[in-house]
């Protein structure tokens, strides 16, 4: 596509506006624009990538590839020789592999404070949750904000440019606003999921009564968050998601009311589903239905819904999800850590179910490295279903286009004119890629996980030469570790 054609892509606003610096953009974000379209700042030219993976319709992989970016969107993609030769900022990608920014569809970032907690090291889902709820009951707003910064830094440095976060516990005045503040500070594209728990032990649920909220309060706060923050425009940096935690921690009523609210405001729905055998048993005993039957009954299916895990989704459930466009967040490391099983990802994808990748919370996947998760997805499918169950390119597609589809977006996940300017690069000259350069794309998945050299989100350089540009990470990690110690000791 030529730049003239790219100019006809569905973006609005005057073609030329005065250039703005990052500080002005941040000020604009703080004003909460409701419809993000074209954000103007310096044009960026990316040139001479050894290989540029487009994930476009033809899945082109370009040698000596490049991009031309205006504001927050890509206007041209092609071999370097066919692109303009100058711009306000030129990034020389010699020796680098460039791919679309990875999309993380499931996380609980606050759990970065409770990694490798001894009592939860060797338990399955329900036992694991039970030992951690009482630790999480002491979370504070500061802990939420700092742990979200740390979690996002880890994601960014491992190739992720868009992440969802499912925050479902709000003790001591914590709010989803605390996560949103962190996302804005670090510059990550963010789908903030307003989770919730309303059925405590005394009502037959799993969480302690002290950490559940009243359903009326949950709905009221969810609406406030949508009205305050949700941006449904193309290239949105921030969307809000309605996300009761799981069938075993909220009521049928709250699930139904949540779906009604999400449709009223045009936002997505997210929860955990069919995670392991106990989860299935709970659903059958409590609701007399499989998890898939339960969500169908509640109206929790459609292209605006995605469910985490679905390890134990049966064939009828796969058909239902395919028919309705309901998405799945596949979380291989977490599924292995908790011995939940192997999700039938190949079967889901062949049937037409949208599948994205998720690192899941840092207490059940103690490393939230996005490119490592891509590799783990490939390896785990092979353990379950044979050596040709997933290729390296399949795994990358799930982590880019798949994630975009699951989050109900068509402006991220590929490098093509009219798409958001979100990409990352990996330096192929590192020892970990040595000997694999006959196929750098496969090398990225098969070889040991690497950190990015560059990450650009919405046209803004967020990682440069392997370092975050938006945050001095050292002091944040020190503060994170101090808060983690306080949290852990409070429950000891
Ligand atoms: Zn989860």
From TrEMBL:
Keywords: Hydrolase, Metal-binding, Zinc. SUPFAM superfamilies: Composite domain of metallo-dependent hydrolases, Metallo-dependent hydrolases. Residues 97-462 form the Amidohydrolase-related domain. Residues 1-30 have a biased composition (Low complexity). It holds the Pfam family Amidohydro_1. PANTHER family: AMIDOHYDROLASE-RELATED DOMAIN-CONTAINING PROTEIN, AMINOHYDROLASE SSNA-RELATED. This is 8-oxoguanine deaminase. It comes from Paraburkholderia ribeironis.
């Amino acid at each position: 596509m030529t730049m003239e054609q790219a100019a006809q892509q569905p973006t609005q606003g005057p073609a030329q506006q005065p250039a703005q610096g990052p500080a002005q953009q941040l000020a604009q974000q703080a004003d909460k624009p409701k419809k993000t379209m074209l954000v103007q700042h310096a044009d960026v030219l990316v040139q001479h990538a050894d290989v540029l993976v487009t994930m476009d319709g033809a899945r082109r992989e370009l040698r000596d590839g490049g991009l031309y970016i205006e504001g927050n969107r890509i206007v041209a993609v092609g071999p370097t020789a066919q692109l303009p030769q100058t711009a306000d900022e030129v990034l020389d990608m010699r020796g680098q592999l460039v791919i679309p920014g990875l999309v993380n569809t499931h996380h609980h970032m606050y759990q970065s404070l409770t990694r490798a907690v001894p009592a939860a090291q060797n338990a399955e889902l329900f036992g694991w949750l039970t030992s951690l709820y009482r630790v999480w009951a002491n979370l504070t707003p500061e802990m939420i904000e700092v742990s979200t910064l740390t979690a996002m830094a880890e994601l960014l440095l491992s190739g992720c440019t868009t992440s969802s976060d499912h925050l479902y516990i709000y003790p001591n005045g914590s709010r989803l606003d605390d996560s949103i503040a962190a996302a804005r500070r670090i510059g990550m594209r963010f789908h903030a999921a307003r989770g919730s728990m309303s059925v405590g032990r005394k009502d037959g649920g799993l969480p302690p009564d002290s950490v559940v909220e009243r359903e009326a309060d949950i709905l009221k706060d969810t609406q406030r968050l949508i009205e305050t923050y949700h941006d449904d425009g193309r290239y949105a940096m921030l969307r809000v998601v309605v996300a009761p935690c799981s069938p075993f921690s909220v009521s049928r009523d709250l699930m139904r009311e949540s779906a009604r609210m999400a449709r009223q405001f045009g936002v997505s729905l997210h929860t955990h589903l069919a995670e392991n055998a106990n989860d299935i048993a709970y659903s059958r005993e409590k609701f007399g239905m499989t998890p898939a039957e339960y969500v169908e009954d509640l109206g929790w299916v459609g292209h605006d819904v995605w469910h985490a895990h679905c390890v134990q989704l049966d064939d009828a459930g796969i058909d239902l999800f395919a028919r309705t466009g309901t998405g799945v967040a596949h979380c291989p490391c977490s599924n292995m850590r908790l011995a939940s099983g192997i999700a039938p990802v190949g079967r889901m994808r062949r049937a037409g179910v949208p599948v994205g990748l998720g690192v899941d919370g840092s207490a059940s996947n103690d490393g939230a490295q996005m490119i490592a998760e891509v590799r783990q997805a490939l390896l785990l499918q092979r353990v379950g279903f044979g050596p040709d169950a997933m290729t390296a390119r399949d795994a990358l597609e799930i982590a880019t286009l798949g994630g975009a589809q699951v989050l109900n977006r068509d402006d991220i996940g590929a490098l093509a004119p009219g798409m958001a300017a979100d990409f990352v690069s990996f330096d192929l000259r590192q020892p970990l890629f040595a000997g694999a350069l006959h196929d750098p794309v496969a090398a990225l998945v098969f070889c040991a996980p690497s950190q990015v050299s560059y990450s650009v989100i919405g046209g803004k350089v967020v990682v440069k030469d392997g370092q975050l540009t938006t945050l001095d990470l050292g002091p944040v990690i020190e503060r994170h570790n101090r808060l983690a110690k306080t949290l852990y000791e409070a429950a000891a």
